[in-house]
Design goal:
The chain has about 120 residues and is of the alpha+beta class. It contains five helices and five strands; from the N terminus they run βααααβββαβ.
């Protein structure tokens, strides 16, 4: 799968392990890079959604249409992503996760965040 980034800072955190280690602790940085590597090598978005260790889930409120992938259930950090179709159009209005799994060809990494802060 193709990954794009919402901003340069997030891209740097996701592509450069030493930058991630400066912004987060070693465990979070390694888990982040593991998740990014998995997404890049996934044959379809369904592989990402169906991976039980990711605890993939939709977000609500002002983040409606975005999804989270846990970096570790106990550490509280998560990767916020937005799925896009083959034309790189947002799928925010689509509610059916099965359609989202089929249509998603590109993922935008929005941010890495601590859910509890």
């Amino acid at each position: 799968m193709e990954i794009k980034y919402k901003n340069k800072r997030t891209e740097k955190q996701c592509k450069n392990l030493s930058c991630a280690k400066k912004d987060f602790n070693d465990i979070v940085a390694k888990l982040l890079h593991s998740r990014i590597n998995f997404i890049e090598n996934a044959t379809s978005f369904a592989d990402v959604v169906n991976n039980p260790t990711f605890h993939f889930h939709g977000l609500a409120g002002k983040m409606q249409g975005l999804y989270a992938i846990d970096l570790g259930r106990k550490i509280g950090f998560r990767l916020i992503i937005e799925p896009l179709n083959e034309k790189e159009e947002s799928l925010k209005k689509e509610k059916d996760i099965e359609k989202i799994k089929q249509c998603t060809k590109v993922v935008i990494v929005v941010e890495v965040t601590n859910h509890y802060e």
